[in-house]
Design a protein that fits this description.
The complex is a heterodimer of chains A (222) and B (291). Chain A has 222 residues and is α/β, with parallel strands linked by helices. Chain A contains 7 helices and 10 strands. Chain B has 10 helices and 4 strands, in the order ααβαβααβαβαααα. Helix content of chain B is 70%, strand content 8%. The chains are: A alpha/beta (222), B alpha+beta (291).
Chain lengths: 222, 291
């Protein structure tokens, strides 16, 4: 489903972000992407989301290959790959429901279907009761759930999460993580970047891909 | 439909910015409009003078009527020639008596008419260049019964140089002000894109197509250009109506032809669209990587 082969990424100003990274993530799999800040975790996620292209090597996501992908195919690829951020990236002027509806509108969902789907998505993340609240009225955990609901709007097969629990207290972080586990059990592959070593240790059964200075130094499944 | 809604919402969200940019675009186009008005009138005046450019050939007295008729037919067939007028010796004398009143005594006492018959050739539009005028004079002078062909070469060259200079100035100033309008619209749309950066980022993340994101901005640019164009047209028209009344010298100012004004407003909208396309492609396009 996701495959990185000898991927390197260098930026003109900051230099090498990744060097020779290779791994595969199978359909329905769950993995942590770990390492200290600056290790290259976000770069890996951006490469999989085709927000940037490798300097060397190749990234394959489903049938899309970084060497051959056409610019006009990228939106279709991104609809298959949901993305959740540490800072939620919600629109403050919109309610929770409107934030989710926004994503549905953007991908061309017929208007008459939007309300029903928003309700289902918010129920799925346990936030049906807060549909009319604006992000500023929600707790960190609730905001992240709205962000997850929005990411699920396109019915992605893969969910990428960049430090999704980084801004949350332990309880909220646990709740969001359980949500990811539930989605994973329903068949969505999840790749979750985190630098919280304790959190990863508590879930030792989950595959761990560890990055250090842009290199993959450990793959617990290998 | 959504693009129209979003474009109008863009105007509602930042009314001051939009009004300022329409005003600024309108102002640069007003200068262009006023300049167009002046250029059109100057061009018209030069055209009037140009239409009077004549090549005159004076005939020898022994030119036979058959020769004159044949020459006239040949001259009329030349592609550059619009009309050929033949002035006989008697007509020339009649005209001299009429036009040169101070010499009427001299002409009145003449027993022999000293004035020659002549051909007066007018040239078609587009052929009134110094080269063509000189070439036509040469053709005329080549007839054996033509004593002399005149066309005021120095005058024609000056007139042509004046037209070329006016065209060059029009092009340079017109291009300059159009560029100013484009830069203003580029900046406006760029600011609008930056103001909605968060929304655009989310659209890109969830898989919006590039066109979906770009269309409202393109429409906003086109509408800004259109509004600026209409504003400029209105102000130029006001200037046309009120200014000549104060200056007797420009009493006969002619308003721009309708195709010009329509093309000007359409061009303003097109410039807005192009400027927006440039701006939005830079700001939105980079998230989709190389083409």
């Amino acid at each position: 489903m996701i495959s990185l082969r000898d991927v390197s990424k260098a930026y003109p100003r900051s230099g090498d972000a990744l060097s020779g990274v290779s791994f595969r993530l199978r359909k329905g799999e769950f993995a942590f992407l770990t390492g200290p800040s600056g290790a290259g975790k976000s770069t890996v996620l951006e490469l999989i989301h085709f927000q940037t292209r490798p300097t060397e090597g190749e990234v394959q996501v489903s049938r899309y290959n970084s060497r051959r992908v056409r610019r006009r195919d990228i939106p279709a690829l991104r609809r298959r790959v949901g993305f959740v951020f540490q800072d939620f990236k919600l629109l403050e002027r919109l309610t929770a429901a409107e934030n989710v509806a926004f994503a549905l509108e953007v991908i061309g969902t017929p208007r008459r279907e939007i309300a029903g789907r928003v309700q289902r998505l918010l129920s799925q993340v346990g936030l049906a009761a807060r549909a009319r609240s604006r992000p500023s009225e929600l707790s960190g955990g609730e905001r992240q759930r709205v962000a997850v609901a929005r990411a699920l709007a396109t019915e992605p097969r893969i969910l990428l999460a960049d430090e999704p629990t980084g801004n949350l207290d332990p309880d909220a972080a646990g709740g969001v993580f359980e949500l990811f586990r539930m989605l994973n059990r329903l068949g969505t592959a999840v790749l979750m970047a985190t630098h919280d070593a304790d959190f990863v240790c508590r879930h030792a059964e989950i595959r761990q891909l560890e990055l250090e200075d842009g290199r993959l130094v450990r793959d617990s499944a290998a | 439909m959504r693009a129209v809604r979003e474009a109008l919402a863009g105007f509602r969200r930042t009314p001051l910015l939009c009004a300022l940019s329409i005003g600024a675009v309108g102002l640069s186009l007003v200068i262009l409009g006023l300049f167009g008005l002046v250029a059109h009138n100057v061009g018209g005046a030069i055209g009037d003078v140009e239409r009077r450019v004549e090549v005159v050939g004076y005939l020898l007295d022994d030119a036979g009527p058959e020769q004159v008729r044949a020459a006239r037919r040949e001259l009329e067939a030349l592609p550059a020639v619009e009309s050929v007028r033949y002035v006989s010796k008697d007509e020339a004398l009649e005209r001299a008596r009429r036009d040169l009143v101070e010499f009427s005594d001299v002409y009145g006492e003449l027993r022999v008419n000293p004035l020659p018959a002549s051909f007066h050739l007018r040239l078609r539009e587009g052929f009134r260049t110094p080269e063509t005028v000189s070439e036509t004079a040469g053709t005329l002078a080549a007839y054996p019964f033509i004593e002399e062909a005149r066309f005021g070469d120095e005058w024609v060259e000056r007139l042509f140089a004046l037209r070329s200079a006016a065209a060059a100035v029009a092009l340079a100033l017109g291009g300059g002000f159009a560029l100013v309008a484009v830069l203003l619209i580029v900046t406006t749309v760029r600011m609008a894109v930056l103001a909605r950066g968060e929304e655009i980022e989310i659209m890109q993340i969830v898989g919006a197509r590039e066109g979906y994101i770009q269309r409202p901005f393109l429409l906003e640019g086109a509408l800004t250009g259109l509004a600026g164009g209409l504003l400029a047209l209105g102000v130029t028209r006001l200037a046309y109506v009120f200014f000549p009344a104060r200056f007797a010298a420009v009493e006969s100012l002619v308003w721009l032809p309708h195709p010009w004004t329509a093309a000007g407003v359409a061009a303003a909208a097109a410039l807005g669209l192009l400027a927006a396309a440039f701006s939005v492609h830079r700001e939105v396009g980079r998230a989709y990587g190389p083409s």
